[in-house]
Amino acid sequence: MYVSTDTQRRVLAWYRKHGRSFPWRETRDPYRTLVAEVMLQQTQTGRVGPIYGEFLERFPSIEALARAPAAEVIRAWRGLGYNRRAIALHVAAQIIAREHGGTVPDDPLVLRSLPGVGDYTAHAVACFAYGADVTVADVNVKRVLARAVHGREPRAVAPDKLARTIETWLPRGGAYLWNQALMDVGATLCRSASPLCGTCPMRRSCSWRMKGRTSSTPPRKKGERFEGSRRQARGRVIDHLRLAVEKGITVKDLFTKLHPDGGGDASQFTEILLRLSDEGLLQLTPSARGGHPRGIVRLPVKTR
Ligand code: SF4
Fold first, then answer.
1. For 24, which DSSP code?
2. Per-residue confidence at 148, pLDDT binned at 50, 70, 90?
3. Residue pLDDT, tens place only, 11-23
4. CA 261 to ligand 1 centroid distance, Å
C-alpha cells in the first residue's frame, strides 16, 4: 500500500499548530496515562478533564490507589458513569502493586491481562506512556484512514483490512505524535457528519475527497435509550450510595429515595443490587441479599 510521507508530514505539521491540549497529554507518567485511558474509554474528553485532576490529587500513585478502600475510588469516579471501570482500575492497581513492583507494565500483552484493559487501552498506554511504536486506533483514527485511504466509511471496510492500513501508515519511531495527530484530525476535521475537508492536512491525497464525497450521514445509533434504562438505574443506585453515610442505607430507604413517587419495579431493583454486589460495586448484608427491606446496602468498605 502506498503511504504518502508528504501527507504524514502535513498531518504532523497541522498537529503541532492545531492539536488539542489535554492534561493527560502533558504527562508521560504511566500511572497517569493509565488512569486517563480508562476514564476516556466511555466518557467524553470534556467530562473527563476536571475529574481526572481531582482523582489524581486523591490517588497520586499506583500505591495510593491500590491501598484505598473501594468505596473511596467509586466516590471519586462520580460524574464519569460506567462505574465498573472504577473497580476494574482499582483491582488493576492492586495487581500492578503486588505483581509488577508498582510499575505499570509497558508490554501491551501484559497490560491486556489487567482488568478493564482491552487492546485499545493497552496500546494507548504502551504508546503514550512508553513511546511504543504501536497503533492506537480509536473511532477517529479509523474514520480518517478509512476515508483517506479507502474512500469509504470505516463500516464499509473489512476490519482486518482497515487494521492493516492503520498499521502501514504508522511512521516508525513516530507513533506517539502520529496517533494523537490522527485522533485530532478525526475529532475536529474529519467529523462523522460533516467533514471539514477544506482545511484538512490530508486533503491532497484523500480518496474520499477525490470521489467528491463531502458529507456523510452517520448510521443511526442502535442500543438502549439512557432515560429509563437499566444503565441509568444502576448509576442512580451508586449515586445515592455515594451520598449515604458510611454504614450504608436500608434496602427500603434506598428504594424510596430512588422512587419518591411510589413507583418502581422492586424485583428489578433487587436484581440490580445483586448484580452490582457481584461486580464489587456495593456490599449487601445477608438479609439485604435476601431482599429484606431492613437489610443494609453500602459501598464496599474493604479493599479486595
Ligand atoms: S480530506 Fe476530508 S474526508 Fe479526507 S481525511 Fe480530511 S476531513 Fe476526512
1. G
2. very high
3. 999 999 999 999 9
4. 51
Catalytically annotated residues: 37
pLDDT score of 228: 76
pTM listed for this prediction: 0.88
Query: Is the Cβ atom of 189 under 6 angstroms away from ligand 1?
Result: yes
CA angle 131, 136, 139 (to 5 degrees): 155
Q: How far is the CA of 214 from the centre of ligand 1 (A)?
A: 8
Instruction: Using the Cα atoms of residue 191, residue 196, residue 202 and residue 207 in order, give the sign of their dihedral.
Output: positive
CATH match of 29-130 with 1.20.1740.10: no
CATH fit for domain 230-298, picks 3.90.75, 1.10.1760, 1.10.10, 2.60.40: 1.10.10
- Can you give the pLDDT at residue 218? 57
Q: Judge whether 191 and 184 are in contact, CB under 8 Å.
A: no
pLDDT at 38: 98
